[in-house]
Amino acid sequence: MNETATRVFVVDDDESVRGALARLLRVSGYQVECFETPQAFLERADLTGTPACLLLDLQMPGMSGLEVQRKLDQLLPIVFLTGHGDVSSSVDAMKGGALDFLPKPPSESQLLEAVDRALKRACEESRRRRERAEIEERMTHLTRREREVMELVVTGRLNKQVASDLGAAEKTIKIHRARVMEKMKARSIVELARLMRKAGIRAADEE
């Protein structure tokens, strides 16, 4: 994994903790950005661009780590750090999508392993978002009729069946189908169906 293409955000109200975490992470090759308060993080952190994860203190004045987690709504993989952990908090954090829940102070190996897992998750999610955006961009070139044909052919219907469903000539459906395959850059109906699933588009028989 290429740490130079990723970032780690650290949010903790304890300056000594922030400093220790930042030093360890930077020495280990990570790009680090530290914030003293959740408000500062939410206002100033650039959450676009390179994949990132968040090391987040659970208990902080003004806004708890769980509140920050809810505001982010799984935008970033989160590793919680706490000196005041309890079972209910860890359960809530995990239900909210937290990747890890570590007691303070975590060991160096424990922390670095958690960050590595979180950044791998972030990179995978970033890849999926880019792939979906590319598929959606291809779909903008489809006409309304081509979109209808696409949603039907991926169900396994023959051209004549699609023609019957849409009240069109089979010859016309063949033309639409060829244009769909070309615009979506799909080499087979199986690949076309996979692209649709990645874009969150349901086939006609899944409505």
TrEMBL record:
Q: Which UniProt keywords apply?
A: DNA-binding, Phosphoprotein, Transcription, Transcription regulation
Name a biological process GO annotation: regulation of DNA-templated transcription
Report the residue ranges that make up the Response regulatory domain in this protein.
7-119
List modified residues, type 4-aspartylphosphate.
D57
One Pfam family name is: Response_reg
InterPro entries per record: CheY-like_superfamily, Sig_transdc_resp-reg_C-effctor, Sig_transdc_resp-reg_receiver, Tscrpt_reg_LuxR_C, WH-like_DNA-bd_sf
HTH luxR-type domain sequence ranges: 135-200
- Tell me the SMART domains matching this sequence: HTH_LUXR, REC
Q: Which GO terms describe its molecular function?
A: DNA binding
Q: Which PROSITE patterns match?
A: HTH_LUXR_2 (PS50043), RESPONSE_REGULATORY (PS50110)
Name the source's superkingdom: Bacteria
Q: What is this protein called?
A: Response regulator transcription factor
